[in-house]
Amino acid sequence: MTLDEDELLYWIFEGITFGMAGRYELQHRVPYQDFRRILFEHQLELIAKLNTKWKERREFEQKETLSRHPFHDQSAEAASGAV
Fold first, then answer.
1. Residues ≥6 apart with Cβ < 8 Å to 44
2. Model pTM?
3. E strand residue ranges, the chain
4. Are 65 and 34 in contact (CB under 8 A)?
5. Of 13, 24, 50, 82, which residue has the fewest beta carbons closer than 10 angstroms?
6. What is the distance between the alpha carbons of residues 38 and 57, in angstroms, rounded to a whole number?
């Protein structure tokens, strides 16, 4: 809950841009690459068009997520079970 209009708008548009970025990632998926690479980058591009401070905030949040759960790309061999 918030009384801050900017905070409310951020919550709304963070969710909307995440959904849009998810759909974009599905159409541009790179085999063996962590899907979040494309998703996170595209979400930042979208949210930056709305508000540069929101982009900075979302970028910080993404970095926090990645510090706990780093990108995990696979080689073709690892994905096939050959490793």
1. 55, 58, 59, 62
2. 0.88
3. none
4. no
5. 82
6. 18
